[in-house]
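Response regulator
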Amino acid sequence: MPARLHVLLIEDSTGDLALAQEVFSLHQDRVQLTTLTTGEAALAALHDPQMSRPDVILSDLHLPGISGLELLSQVKADPALTAIPVVLMSGDADPSFVTSAYRNRASAFLDKGQRFAQQLTAFLLFWLQASVPSAAAQDDLNDTALA
């Protein structure tokens, strides 16, 4: 069985978190979801050797304490974390926020507007298709290609 996509979701809004969990639950056989509510908790988890590294980080832009933009900056500045894709999301898709996100190397920006559930589904389907196969799966692919 292929490895599941591990998504780290950082969201402080209970309503948006519940909606995201509902969307992710439809793909629970292929997705491992870890949820946190603050940027500080996310950074602590990312540096915790007991926690497996996520394949992608999905973070709200407006978080209490460390914002999603600051979280993005710290992840991209850390050589141990920089390769992890970070997707920011906000109900306030002000063009200056979107521009700042991409300038700080966000992989994408989701608008938590009326079509938030559809955006989350598209996010999941994209990352499920784009995820890099595990080393064992890659070996199997290589063996098949050589046969």
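thats it. The domain at 5-146 is CATH 3.40.50.2300 (Rossmann fold). Residues 133-147 have pLDDT under 50 and may be disordered. bye
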